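ENTRY TYPE: paired fold submission
RECORD: A
CONTENT: sequence, then structure tokens
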Amino acid sequence: MTERSFADLGTIPKLAAVALVAFALSGLPGASGTAQAADPAAGKALAMQWCSSCHLVAEEQSTASSVSLPSFFDISEDHGWTPEKLSTFLANPHAKMPNMTLGNYEIANLVSYIGSLKK
């Protein structure tokens, strides 16, 4: 039996692996108890740095450049944005987003912050 590395996997399995790692790190119910929990405060700081120029990401934020984009509050309440789907999206964002390369911990922190906004 030959051993395969992560690099040998196709795009979809890579994204699925990233989503699973982010979910495990997110500290959400069903996540692995052995993984370090994600830090919503660190996720908020990252959101303020990278996302707040376009999205409304925090209550204390005075403006966002586009009212047509969903706020992080809206995303947190949208049942279609599961932690796995959000993690996958952040690992491979759409073209209009800044060219940012987020690591697994940063993704997990952002997902945890967005989840913390849910009422």
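RECORD: B
CONTENT: sequence, then structure tokens
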Amino acid sequence: MWFPLLQVWEHPIGICMLRGAVFGLTRDTGKAHLAKATLESLAYQTKDILKAMEDDSGIQLKHLRVDGGACANNHLMQFQRYIRF
């Protein structure tokens, strides 16, 4: 699943015209699946931003320090670690 709605971070203009779609749903898909997909999309977006920072600066980041409400979610933090390194 991919959540294009979360792309609003990059393009805040035109928020009223945003549309999103969720693909791959079955009858077995529940709230937990959607929550997991949302968290994982946050991790992938963070990965993309970090990659862009590394490419632009020529410096490889060795550590990622986090704070805020999202870091209270263990799945998100573990998944972020898994896809980052």
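NOTES ON RECORD B: The two ends are 22 Å apart (CA to CA). The chain has a mean pLDDT of 81.
STATUS: closed
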